[in-house]
Design a protein that fits this description.
This protein is of the alpha+beta class and about 160 residues long. It has a single domain, classed as Nucleoside Triphosphate Pyrophosphohydrolase. Helix content is about 15%, strand content about 45%. The strands form three sheets. The chain has a four-stranded mixed β-sheet. Strand 3 and strand 4 form a beta hairpin. The protein is globular, with a radius of gyration of 14 Å.
């Protein structure tokens, strides 16, 4: 089993959420939250700020820790064919954009970064991370944990 520690930004302003369009190795396109892998010896707090800048071109500040999510993605459902199952541990932060210019990730796997109306998210092909992050931001559970999001249809791993 592979394991991945990642940090994700939930940036909501004026009824819109900041999303990034991730392009997988096979060309599949899925909307997700700005975020990514925590580098060796990096604090997830620093990761989320770095990832927002890399994926979207925006500068951001962390306003609060929202919660932590752990999920196992079966090998057959991975975006990388032939890869073993993956445990993804995601640390979700509420962030606020403070500057920069919205743009896609240069030489990366993010094709587009956009402010999306919250009312339109349910119609997007998206990562389950989007639903987890929005649920954490909406409910602010004292435990920092929300239930799993069913995957299928428009909701992907």
């Amino acid at each position: 089993m592979d394991r991945r520690l990642a940090a994700y930004a939930v940036c909501i302003e004026n009824g819109r959420v900041l999303l990034a369009l991730a392009v997988g190795p096979c060309g599949d396109r899925t909307w997700t939250l700005p975020g990514g892998r925590v580098e060796h010896a990096e604090d997830p707090f620093d990761t989320v700020i770095r990832e927002v800048a890399e994926k979207t071109g925006l500068e951001a500040v962390v306003e609060r820790l929202l919660g932590v999510d752990s999920r196992v993605i079966p090998a057959g459902e991975r975006r990388l064919p032939g890869a073993p199952e993956l445990q993804n541990v995601g640390v979700f932060y509420g962030v606020r954009a403070t500057g920069g210019t919205l743009r896609p990730e240069p030489n990366g796997d993010t094709a587009e970064a956009v402010w999306t109306p919250l009312s339109g998210v349910a119609r997007l092909r998206r990562s389950s991370l989007v639903d987890i992050g929005l649920d954490l931001a909406r409910t602010l559970p004292p435990s920092g944990h929300v239930g799993p999001v069913p995957v299928g249809g428009l909701v992907q791993h």
